[in-house]
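Interim report to the steering committee. The following record documents the input for H(+)/Pi cotransporter (536 residues).
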Amino acid sequence: MGGGGGGGEQQQLEVLHALDVAKTQWYHFTAIVVAGMGFFTDAYDLFCISLVTKLLGRIYYRVDGSPSPGTLPPHVSASVNGVAFVGTLSGQLFFGWLGDKLGRKRVYGITLMLMVLCSLASALSFGHTPTSVMATLCFFRFWLGFGIGGDYPLSATIMSEYANKKTRGAFIAAVFAMQGFGIITGGLVAILVSASFRAAFPAPPYGEDPVASTPPQADFVWRIILMLGALPAALTYYWRTKMPETARYTALVANNAKQAAADMSKVLQVVEMRNIGNNGGSRRPFGLFSGEFVRRHGLHLVGTSATWLLLDIAFYSQNLFQKDIFSAVGWIPKAATMSALEELFRIARAQTLIALCGTVPGYWFTVALIDVVGRFKIQAVGFFMMTLFMLALALPYHHWTAPGKNHVGFLLLYGLTFFFANFGPNSTTFIVPAEIFPARLRATCHGISAASGKLGAIVGSFGFLYLAQSPDRSKTEHGYPPGIGVRNSLFLLAACNLLGLLFTFLVPESKGKSLEEMSGDAEAQEEAPPPLQAVL
């Protein structure tokens, strides 16, 4: 690489400045849908698996003579739910690192293909015994999670690097908000499939006839629901392979400003740039484990990782005792009074209602307000409100769950907790790591933050599966040891949210600033030797 590196630096800044001030265009919206499909699949799968596990328990784990329908044994339930999380965590770290090494585009198609194939395969099973069905399901769910995990750092980074600085927050939030569509689609698919099968193959409640209450055709229901999740992702595969590499990666990491300008001009109308030649990279790059990184971004990484970890402990444990909350407040009758498909239909309907009222609006509030209010305020207020609502659920817990008329208030508070999770830290923890780290470490740092979140999801899902059990052994679910009960679990979750609020103070505000300004990439450019001749 010859001299004139400073000129290269100047050219680089020109390409990036042009991106920062580019008008919002149709391509930005295409990118949101294409990048958001991973999150659609993620949310769809996560939503459906909680419904499917109830059905799998009835089909494969019925105990003759038992007064209540079969349920998955604790270790099987933990495996089915947990294996996807472990896959996601691994995928976030691996593809985050790979996205910085090889470029975002080169690995972007792989994650989607993995999701599509494993969604389809997780609905197949090799063998008829409960063990073989569960083993197959777990195997493919791990790899499905691996693909989904890769999508976190790649989609966030790609969207942040394509966007202009004025609406960047809204664009990244919109990619994440595709989860909302995934949840609703999952709910609607489950409702339609279970209602169609219920009409075609009527069955008595479990209490009347334990064997006939689960018709043999129910085995197709869960498979169809899981398989349909692959469709939307498969449809966007073509567009994903056609996306050019992001200009920021090409200019700052691959040091090719000319190529970056050419790539962007194919898809975006950017301000005209003159005299762009190849860049003779003159910055001194620092690695993830260097003192320089720790000095500049160490606390930022602690902040983004800790807030995501604490949020997901609360967020995922809430999701899990949704079914129990519905039963406690009388939305879903006792399992023995329903047939298998009736139960699936009712749980799907209840969860879709909660999603429509609480979960989904929160995402879009974030999209609308993030570039107005800023990331910090949304995250801090979100954590604060979640703490407040959890305490409001926990303190008078017996009042809420007493047989009577308090159910509406309880569900309202429960829905509001979800609303402020999504119009709050659930969205911002995803957005900020894609904005504040240097381009050559951006996907890696986002992957580390996201993997911390998934660690929180594992704690939230499994820790609370056991913790939320009643302290009274006679009231625990079949196969579980006594826990501390739902009320005490809610107190613990409120504490997690409060800690999340404190860690939010380590994360800088990135509203309205360019990525280079936030990450220090611009400083590195200014430290370069002055150009021999001006380019502008």
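The chain has one domain: 22-272+293-520. The committee is asked to note this result when reviewing the revised timeline.
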